[in-house]
Amino acid sequence: RELEQKVEDRTAEMSKQKQRAEVLYSDLRDSINYALRIQKSILPTEKEISEVFDNSSVFYRPRDIVSGDFYFFRSVGRIRLVAAVDCTGHGVPGAFMSLVGYNSLSHVTKVFTEPSKILDRLNSAALEVLSSETSPDNLQDGMDLVMVAVDMEKMQLQYSGANNPLYVVREGELHEMKADKFAIASFIPDSKSYTQQVFSLKLGDTIFASTDGFVDQFGGPFGKKYMRRRFRELLIRLAEMPVNKHRAELAKEFDTWKAKEEQVDDVLVVSIRI
Length: 274
Fold this sequence. Notes:
Layout: H1 2-42, H2 46-52, E1 56-61, E2 69-76, E3 79-87, H3 91-108, H4 115-130, E4 143-151, E5 156-162, E6 166-170, E7 173-177, E8 197-200, E9 206-210, E10 218-219, E11 224-225, H5 228-238, H6 246-258, E12 267-273
Antiparallel strand pairs: 1-12, 2-3, 3-4, 4-5, 5-8, 6-7, 6-9, 9-12, 10-11
């Protein structure tokens, strides 16, 4: 009887712990779902994207429910801006960083349209938020991004990047523009500055801006990273297709490569046809 009583007591305690865990899980799930609604509110809709670039596509695959990656589209006069941004972390921490990044980018692009100036001001704005009690040398949070400005009257593209390159495919040939190798919020303002590259566009050019989630994904027959060489080859193939097919083709390629491996990071690829 004593043993039976101990078993009953232990069972009752385990039942209480299970109920507490279920309540905590439900609260956490509700909080994450609410965070998702907030994050979705900052992402441009397909209609808003088409008003900036009418022939474009976004492949967006968060690793968790919410993401540290976000995309940004805006028209300022005759200049059309687009950015693919990768904030530190993923899941809820990354999502909080994406809100900081989006808010800073929204304010900066109301004044500046040159990508290098946008990135320099974005670095300062992000540091004001993130490093009130931490020096930039010790700051772990930040952003990598591709920033593009397109002037359709001059048929000219301007690009600046923090760690992530930009690709333009023309008639089967891929042109890669290298990024500066320092992240947003990683340096004291005015101690460095982002460089800007200019590229003359032609009708039919395809622009690709992405974060590093796709190239860093493990998979394939040997469980290795996808890598940039394979990604460049994929972009050349994509450039031969209508842009409205890019999202499905990227999803197919990513899922085939990943197979049974876990997704390692948020994934974002933006395609634009001139």
